[in-house]
């Protein structure tokens, strides 16, 4: 049956010994290649009998005949069973693609429900030891907790017993009294009435005070001593990797990444199909209240451009119809950058009716959202400004009062639509609840205009990219409790062309801008009312049980009206200069709701069955960074090392990477001292595991004698001294000092906004640059996006060099420019990775004409050098170091490696020569190969 | 994913003419071996999967030339051959199973080392080997039953030496099978037997 194998080649036939080769055909291999098919083949072979078995003494016989048939039957049956088993895969091998294998594969509960029974059976067959929660030996920590619980229970039982004993004697003397309604009722009612008449004084809101996190349930209190939980903590804690208990991020417990595999799925969900949502409640919210003029003055003092604030450009923003995101700076002299801040005004109901004088006098509210790492800095700054502002401005911390979430992806709008049912019933098919009195009482004003926002919102079904809406559009309305409509159902989407045309018209006209509706989210009472009125899950369940089958429960007048504020974030800069980024960038929705109302909305979102199949995914911090990286945006704080928060982040990252590095045995980690850094130099520039800004600004340790550098060194505690000895002493220092303590930021290190950076770069080198006096140019950073022109992927901490100048090193410069000439990723020829160019000799097909063959040969000869070849240019020297990559990886959106980093602007200013716009050389930390790249300011 | 489609032929080798057999059938010791057993006797030991393979290839070359042989060469495989029961399962690609079938049908003699007249009968063509195996099992059961019935009737006839009616009926049935050459036409009765077994 099996084909005969050729006889093994004779080894000794030759007299002369062959030269030793790497692959000796008959040399005993150390590892036999495993034949994966063998098992299947064995299972499939059927056993047979020889003919002699079918004879009895060499003669035909009925009983032997019958026996041989019986043997055949058993052989075939056995063979069928065996081959079935061989193909069979175990339940643990059949889990969906995105589930990680091998995590607790002894636990049946880790496989999807449909496979659980089978898994259980298989485990029982194999006698795999399993542990149930009941029988698990508690960990030391858990045992302590269990003991405490036991003690507390015993105490509670004692106390209860004591109460029971005490009660009867108290009840006995006038035991009849409570049973007599005539006696007791008037007595009790009297005080109740009076109590109802007296209105409890609403506690005065303390302004200019830091908010305290909400008091958690006693059960969870001990776990939130040094940090707070997001409203959706329980959801995430079950499904995501959270920050370590000892190392919370910004005093929050934040999901870092889902437990399921999610790098590629997140990219797909946010770009092609599906949706990704994040709980962004950790973003801090602040409210500033005062006259419009003084608030704008305050923002001006924070360094926001004046033309953005006043005049026509900021008109819609000032009316509360748009959102503005700006970078703010400190007010005092070094004008340190703080953070990007999202600002939105409260729309005023009586805008047109009031006179100009009144308008100027009236108080307005402004909401600021800022990343928690920069919250305190901004808070201090605002308090300082509020003190000097005239007329007075009050600052309020709304951190634990307003929660938020962000959702992106084509299905995001759809999912949000199903979760957010406007409280105001929409006229038309849903107008049943129109008679509910309170629904209309909430908002006074013209009733027909009352529902414009809600109608617009409901009409957005079918929108796949919020970036299509007017830029930074803002929507605010009240929604019902989403638990009433749980589980969510797929909404009706526009199918016909006319319907889609209507949607386009709506987006173009955007009627929301004409409405004068007061957003209730700015109103503390409304927020608190919504939170307080949220019914218990039990009550919601009861109502759902009473509703007719398949129907949602009717809205009641007493239902909470959750004020929400929705705004879109579109990518800031349009596609420009980034090759390979053809697809339009997806916008995202940001939803602000009262803190306590976020959780039910989150659950409605997460279980929404998308019209394209599946459910929205959730992301952690890593996914957020990934999505902003793929959109080509810088992420605060990581990509802003010039800010205080960014500096701290960088320091924390550096420590993490260093710990990783030190953990590895010496033979298996990069020896940074021996890295070839070009031109015969050895040893990584600065610390290998970080973006060494100190070294970049302060220069190599030789220049340490400089007065300024020495001063810097003294100030910052540790400076550019990063020689081997320096590292050691640093390590010793660090082991002594508290680990979380980041050293103060380099003085004068600052981050320039894109506009200023572009202006600086555009000025010709001959003219003297006019700069605001506070900017210390030698340490001003600009944020850039980087694409590599040939090959390679920039990693975080990669070093960015400028091309060597034509005076200092013309040869190296020429070599680098030669790479540019033909080997760039241009639009006509897409980046082809490894096989973009014929490396070896051309394919000489028989059909190819002679001239094509010659052409290819010539092309292959002229091809620029590749990494690893002798002619490949070396990395420029340290004098040409200009910056570091802060985020870098293979970009799934672009299709090749890109990065985001920062450059020292002074080193790249005026260095542009003809035809080499923004060229740079990028070398990953710890490697000797540099790559040609191009950067652009973002 | 595209799947390569095959056909599995379940094949029986039958020996209708007992006289030419090299093996001495138990004829002399009286006709106590029923014809159904002789008819589907074991193949000689030299007959194996490789020989069957050669037989098919030669047959196809003879009938269809190099073209036909090339067509089946890639996919032809003898999945199972049991000489004790003269049963085989042959795999061919779905497009060309008829070539193999016809080559089998036209075979009258087993090739050289065996060199015995035979009839090769394709009893089942199926898309999966599993169905072919199931059919083989069904047929094995059937032939067991038939051999047992025939043996019983024969022994009765020997013992009685008078041809009573039941034995005559049984012998007649056996004869009918023998004459017909087709051993078990697909009848509802067969199906019932199968279900019982």
Task: Show the helix and strand layout.
The complex is a heterodimer of chains A (938) and B (197).
Chain A (H helix, E strand, L loop, with lengths): L36 H8 L10 E2 L2 E2 L1 H26 L25 H14 L13 H32 L9 H17 L20 H4 L6 E2 L3 H7 E3 L9 E2 L1 E4 L4 H9 L4 E4 L4 E8 H10 L4 H4 L5 H4 L5 E6 L7 E9 L10 H6 L1 E8 L4 H14 L5 E4 L4 E7 L3 H8 L17 H5 L5 H4 L1 H7 L15 E6 L17 H13 L14 H10 L3 H10 L15 E8 L18 E7 L3 H9 L10 E2 L2 H10 L13 H20 L29 H6 L8 H10 L7 H13 L13 E3 L1 H9 L17 E9 L10 E3 L8 H14 L26 H13 L18 E11 L4 E9 H4 L10 E5 L6 E8 L1
Parallel strand pairs in A: 3-5, 7-17, 18-19
Antiparallel strand pairs in A: 1-2, 4-6, 7-13, 8-11, 8-12, 9-10, 10-11, 13-16, 14-15, 15-16, 19-22, 19-24, 20-21, 20-23, 21-22, 23-24
Helix pairs in contact in A: 1-2, 8-22, 14-21
Chain B lengths: L5 E9 L20 H5 L9 H25 L3 E6 L4 E7 L3 H9 L13 E8 L2 H32 L4 H16 L7 H9 L1
Antiparallel strand pairs in B: 1-3, 1-4, 2-3
